[in-house]
Design goal:
alpha/beta; Methenyltetrahydromethanopterin Cyclohydrolase, Chain A, domain 2; 7 helices; 32% helix
Length: 229
């Protein structure tokens, strides 16, 4: 299937499993965390759709000190597509058809969007899962802005903790960004001869970023210049 087909299929699965998945369908808009609770399974399916079927999405756990916390792990085969999908357009992220309708969109408000839209507020479980899943596209968008050609960006991996939601959406957003900054990690594999990969990796400050270069076999960033890719 194409990425657009995968995105449409993910929306269809969400709709077919509603309301058992704690979501609610109204027309072509699915509430996955606005007026209804949503949940882990719907958030994972949504994330797979936002990646256009080009990523493995694992919801598991990691240990932070003495505690174990939920974690979202992404293994992405098309990081550039992910950066495009997770770029906000009119308050929504996702994949659009050629005519501008959404194959799959996610956001807090549907507005006048056409197509398949999933809604969730920042205080929802769905929102914090998608936030944790967005590390790869955020890092790739940064690399593209710094002039790294998209054909040099091959694969991505990330592992970020999930801060469980509360009724205070802004507090959740701030706490989640802080947790990802402190404990999140993202690896991007590149085939590049640029001399500034070390600088690019270290200048990124939102979470730990590692660039694995297939040209020289080195890792730049947290484990700069050491080890094989």
């Amino acid at each position: 299937m194409t990425s657009l087909e995968c995105a449409r299929a993910a929306f269809a699965v969400l709709c077919e499993n509603s309301p058992a998945n704690h979501c609610r369908l109204e027309g072509s808009v699915l509430d996955a965390g606005k007026e209804v609770p949503g949940g882990w399974s719907s958030a994972r399916t949504l994330t797979e759709g936002l990646y256009g079927g080009k990523a493995i999405v694992n919801v598991s756990q990691q240990r932070l000190g003495e505690e174990q916390v939920p974690t979202v792990e992404i293994l992405c085969d098309d990081p550039v597509l992910a950066s495009e999908s997770f770029t906000s357009r009119e308050g929504l992220v996702g994949l659009q058809e050629a005519d501008g309708a959404w194959a799959l969109a996610y956001g807090e408000n549907a507005g006048g969007a056409r197509g398949n839209v999933v809604l969730a507020v920042p205080a929802s479980l769905c929102a914090v899962v998608v936030e944790a899943a967005a590390a790869v596209p955020r890092a790739v968008s940064y690399l593209l802005e710094q002039g790294v050609p998209q054909e040099e960006i091959l694969w991505g991996w990330s592992c970020c903790p999930v801060v469980l939601p509360s009724l205070d959406g802004e507090a959740v957003r701030a706490a989640h960004r802080a947790a990802i900054a402190a404990h999140g990690v993202c690896s991007i594999w590149v085939r590049s001869t640029r001399a500034d990969l070390e600088t690019l990796a270290r200048n990124w400050g939102d979470f730990r970023l590692r660039l694995h270069c297939l040209e020289d076999g080195k890792t730049y960033g947290a484990s700069s210049g050491t080890g094989a890719v």
